Structure formats: structure tokens, C-alpha cells
Predict the 3D structure of the following.
Amino acid sequence: AGRYPHEFSGGMRQRIMIAIALAGDPDVLIADEATTALDVTIQAQLLEMLRDLARERGVAIIIVTHNMGVVARYADRIYVMYSGSMVETAPTRELFKNPEHPYTRGLLAAIPRLNDPKNRVLVPIEGLLPDASCRAPYCAFYERCKYRSPRCAELPQPKLTETAPGHFTACCLTPQEREARERAMAEAVHAAPSKHIGSETCLEVRGVTKRFAVRSGMFQRKIGEVHALENVSFSVRRGETIGLVGESGCGKSTLARCIMRACEPDDGQILFNGRDIAHEKERALRDVRRDVAMVFQDPFSSLDPRQTAESIVGESLRIHRLCGSEQAYSARVDELFRLVELDPELKKRVPHEFSGGQRQRLGIARALASNPKLIICDEPISALDVSVQAQIINLLERIQSELAVSYLFIAHDLAVVRHISDRIVVMYLGMAVEIADCEALYSKPLHPYTQALLAAVPTADPEAEVGREALRLDSEIPSVMDRPKGCPFSNRCPAATDRCRTERPDTYRMDDGRQVACFLYERR
């Protein structure tokens, strides 16, 4: 109780906020995006705790969130809002089973789920939110609605009307009209882009280790070390997508920085096209800078607000002298704009004149400018709403199909990672604890941490949530300065033994090719 906020982890700070909210013994608790910035395991702990408190104290909880999986798992009733109005409300299972409003249907079609077919095509909601300062007198969703009828623009803003017991919808169309239009549109089926993974290796990481010194005092005396990465190894083939997952602080971004050579690893090799770039001098890395690009998490702060969109996208063209003339430069910039589905007429604008999704498209166009062989996507969709997320995911998949570029895809959303990735690397406290093909890992995770991670992810399907067994991790993630002596997961693992607490497991290769760092799979 005597500690200050900076001395707590994110999950502990959020629990303190919940304690503050409960101090007055409220009848209603509003959780406004209370778990958005947290890892899935910590998110699951907090939401389970809130649900237990609601049952014990009789508190009503309102969860405000973008995460449809969270409401599918924890909510009893859902209210769907659009442009300041309630457009649909129903009990959770009823709404997911029979969504009636076109906006609700659009939301559910745009999100990937853990139980989806791997080749399912996400369907984004086209268009942009209406301007709240000049609302139209008719349905606010009219301009973006794929079911719309001319009479929708002639009638006033629809009110919530009960269409089934407890199910209310604000829509001018009848259920029969919506179903007729749904059947007509179902005939135009969009196929997932074809994908070819080459046999040659684009990137190979071998035993990469990175430590950061912790210093204190006037003379910056070294008082410890942060073990950010410990003996991490994996490979990426041409045209392949590797998903990199794990809780915050597990070393994902540090690994990306080492591959980009924004920082130099202490040990190990980073082989790019067979060449070890781990310890090369900056001057020798010029061609690597051209062949390895990055798409960042925040589509606004990663773009210079003083540059035009044209200069942002074309910057690497000038740095690497990839265009011989101004005409060639302008033509290439226009080509990149069209590749990411932006109008070249917008290239004189500056970043604040674009929407979040458009800014992320600019970031992708910038990454593609030098024709890279590898693109590192560091949480490229976490700052976007679900419909724009679907657009960016579809765009990345189409670009990979056309250009055979390889992706290292870092994300917390395991449903998105499953949708886009071919293989998954699961990291914990700086170590790769499991590496496997996507389908194998999601159908049968081996490492206890992978099992807990997948069990903590809510899926946007209440029926699927009923049969899922939760595997809770009640303890905190150890400090990277004071990690366990043996297996880094031993203090949280339900299967840990005395050996796990004193010895570090090797990485064992299974018959199906997957790799797992756990004594449970040691060959004796």
C-alpha cells in the first residue's frame, strides 16, 4: 500500500483503479475500455474478477469496448451504438446469432475469430463515419449501408423497435428485405488471395541475446541488467508470415529492433539472405535498410506531421536513389498510392488530413517503396477500429500475394495473428517457448504458457465460449531484472516441478517439426 503507481505492473495499476471505483460501494460500475491496453492474460484476470464482484455484491457493470470477444464472453446484454445513437440491443447470444441491423452485421463480418476457417475473407464496412456536426435527418448509417433502399433517405431517423422478444433494432428495412439483399450479395463470393511460400530462407535468427544495463546515481553506476532476449532462434521463408506473440515486456519489439539493426544484439546471428548482419557497421547496412522495412503501431506519431504524403512515401526512393528522374519518382509514388488503395490526388496533403486507416496505408506504402524482401509489422492494427483493421489485413494479404514479400507480424490479438500467419513464435520473458505451424499451435498448444495464452483470448462467439475451459494465470509476470532461476514460466505454471524452478529447459523438436521449450516434452 505504500508503493507508488510507477512501481506496479499495468495489471496491478488497473486493479488499483477498480478498487478506487468500488470504494464507495456503487450500484453501477462503468468499465470504459478498462482492459484495452492490457495483455490477454491480465485482461482475463481482471474481467473474471469484475464478474465475480458483480455476482457477490450485486453490482451492475457496463462494459464499453471495441472488443467483440470481451462482450461475447462477459456481457449478458449488448447495446450497439453508431454515430451517437443506439441502433440495436439484444441478449448476447441472440445478437450474435441473429444480428439484424446492417451495422451490427458489418461489425461481425469484419472481425476474425479463433474458430474461423483459415481462408475466411474479412469484409470491412466501406466508407467513413458521418460528420457529427451536420447530421442528416435520415438514417445515419445510410451512406455506408450495403442493404439500403431509396426510401431509407426519405424517412426520418429510425427508432428502436422490438422485432423479437427482447431484441430491438433501429432500421427502416424489414427483416425480409434485409434477407433478400443478403442472398443477392452472397452470390458475389470473394476468394482469399492465393499465396506461395518459397523454399528459400529470407531471414534466420540464431541464438540472439540482448541485455540492457540498468544504471543509477550521478555517476550512472551499473546496478543490474535487463535480460530482454535470451537465445532466440527462428527462420522466415520467402513469402511467409511469421506471427510473434506474447505478453508486454516479453521482447517482441526488442527483437524487431535487433533485426532492423536499430540496436545491436550482444550475441547470436541475424542472417538476412545468408549474410550475418548482427554486428556489421552502420555504413555496411545501407542495402539492408532498403530490403528490410517496418510498419509501426501508431499511424499518426510514426509520420512526420510537416511532410506531405508524397514526401513520406517517396523518402526511401530518394535516399536509395531508386528513381533516375523526377518523372519516374512521381510515377512510382502514384503507383504506391494505388497499390495501397489511396487516390494519388491526395499526395499533397499532410498526415492530419487523413483518417487513421488512411495514415496506416501511408505507412504501408512507405514500407513498400524500396521493394523490400521483409516487412516487420509491429502492432500495425491495434490503434484502428475493427472495420479499418479488416481493410488493412486484407491489404497486407493482397500485397503479399502480389509481391511475395515476407512478414514478421507482431500483435496481441491472437485471432488476427491466426488469420494472417503461417507459423507462430510464442515468446515469454525474452525466450521463444514454442514455435509451430499456425493450425497445429491453435488446435493443440503444447507449452503451458501457450495453452494459458489461448485460453485467455475471448472469441466473438458466445456459443463457442460456453465449452471453452479457462486456464487462469493468477500470479504476476516476473521482473526481467529478477527472473526465475530455471524456466522463466515456472512461478506461474500449473505443471511446474522442482526441476523447472532450478533448471532452464532446452528447446525440444517434436516429430511434426514444432519446437517447444518445456521439460514435459524432453525425449528420454
About this structure: The first strand starts at residue 28 and ends at 32.
